[in-house]
Amino acid sequence: MSEKHHVVVVGGGIVGVSTAYFLTRHPLFASGSVEVTLVEEHELAGGASGKAGGFLAIDWHGPHTASLATLSYNLHQSLAREHDGAAKWSYRTVESVNAIARARKRTDDAEPEANIALAAAESELEFRPRPPLRGSGRIDWLWTKEQGGSVEAQEVVAGEDTTAQVNPREFTLALWDLAAAAGAKLVKASPVSVARNPSTDAPLSILLSNSDTLLPCTSLVLAAGPWTSPLSERLLSVPLPIGHLPGYSLVIRPTTPASAHAVFVKIKGATSANMTGSPEFFARPDGTIWFGGQNYGPDLPASCADVDEAALTEPENWDKLVAAAKELSREMSAGEIVKKQLCYRPISDSGVPLVSSLNSKGCPGVFVGSGHGPWGITLAPGTGKVLAELVLDGKATSADISALAIERVR
């Protein structure tokens, strides 16, 4: 009988969990020849996967990720159909709207600063590139100029056929439950070191922080979000071109339930009015609204467990979000702030995610999935599926990820 293939995935966010899930759906796993272990030191969905907005789009992507985005968006749909995603993780389609506002207490009409898209200032990739407009829009819970508010224009940029949403924390936890039911194992620990085959350099085992026992490891997948590069340096002495993009956000319960819309706003004069200039917010089925777009924050802490403490060092970022929410909607202005959050999204220096083998870096049997920036929730299922194919089949066949290889991403 042949030896088992031990796959270890490091990172309990949406990409790591998606990878574990699709590994358990592979025919080799069903045959009993593959074991899957997920290693997470903090908690599942403890980072951006538990705090992000959960917006999904099929055609808001550049050429590097278009194939992966199509695969992943369709997987979101099929997973929701198969596992009752509407009930379990609040999956639903939404209409998406661009809006222009003018801050009422502004001292100028300056355009808002562009959303920080990338860790590298020289990149020209848009934060969220959008398809052509479809026509005018009208969301009744936005405070319009005609009503004495600040919203001057609304335009539909996408319909329910191309944009959707999930609650990312609920999605991640539900997908893990499915992977665990199939036989995947969860270990709460941090990897300390990797023992490698002296002949091939492939992984043999991993020493974990919670034990002196070595965890067998034939293939290693690094999916630790913004901590992926420090992890790779520590375990493999291989730095990766992945940084971090901080994002403060609120969860607001408005005075009346909001319609199923994703809204992207530019507020003229926002800087002089001391508010977030390019907020984006998504009404959720539970009656709350996720409100973000303040993509500034403290440096990345050493651990996901330290993020909440780090958030408190710059509370003015929440204040700017609150000011913008009050500016745009009377229902949000009079509503309840349910949560104040900070998360860090992994982003490569070029803005293109890294979904690749590290064989060319002298690390056969090691794979990475990280650097998705603001599109981690949309691209996670597709990333998990192609990583499972890379690990067990030797190549990705479900999507073209050639532009996401370590040799091409900087």
Q: What would your notes on this structure say?
A:
The chain is an alpha+beta fold and 410 residues long. The protein is 25% helix and 27% strand. It is built from ten helices and 20 strands. It has helices at 14-24, 27-30, 66-83, 85-88, 168-182, 228-236, 307-311, 316-328, 330-333, 376-393; strands at 5-10, 34-39, 55-57, 92-93, 95-102, 135-136, 151-158, 163-165, 185-187, 191-196, 203-208, 214-216, 219-222, 242-253, 261-268, 280-283, 289-294, 336-348, 354-357, 366-370. An eight-stranded mixed beta sheet has the order 6-7-5-15-16-17-14-18. Strands 9-2-1-13-20-19 form a six-stranded mixed beta sheet, with helices on both faces. Strand 10 and strand 11 form a beta hairpin. Mean pLDDT is 93; it is low at 116-124.
Overall 3D shape: elongated
Helix fraction bin: 10-25%
Mean pLDDT over the full residue set: 93
The fraction of residues assigned to DSSP E strands is 25-35%
How many individual helices?
10
Structural class designation: alpha+beta
Count of strand segments: 20
State the end-to-end CA separation: 42 Å
Global Rg = 21 Å
**Low-confidence blocks of residues:** 116-124
Strand order of the largest sheet: 6-7-5-15-16-17-14-18
Give the SSE string.
EHHEEHHEEEEEHEEEEEHEEEEHHHEEEH
Sheet of most strands: 8 strands, mixed
